[in-house]
Amino acid sequence: MTAETPPRAASPEGFRDRFETLIPTIQREWPAVARQTLEATRGSFDEVVEVISSQTGRTASAVKDQLLDLLEVAGDQTSRLADNLAPLEAQLENLLDELNTTLRPRIEKPVRERPLMAIGIATGVGVLLGLLLASGRRSS
């Protein structure tokens, strides 16, 4: 790496892991390259570069740089998505904890007081669901 070239956040090593999600983006950038041809590379960075270069007439160096840019953008988008989901995950966890503390005792008490009735109700619900699912399969 020369002094003029800054280090890249994306590297070919992470390419294979993200390959499946990058295929649509690669096809938008290079529509001449068939999906099957890309899939045949099994996510090998060098093979993808070679395929795109040979089918588009672009130099391998230019294709490598553009693929690394795509990989970097995909990584940034994934990071932003994870950051946006973190508060939602915490909120969901709090809601589940709240449900567990409020709803669970209300359900457990009747089951402990009348276990045979609870078993009967569960059996009835299971039979009804089984009948509904079985009739749905027959009509398909």
TrEMBL record:
The chain crosses the membrane at residues 116-134. The keyword Transmembrane helix applies. InterPro entries: DUF883_C (IPR043605). Keywords: Membrane, Transmembrane, Transmembrane helix. It comes from the Bacteria. Residues 111-137 form the DUF883 domain. This is DUF883 domain-containing protein.
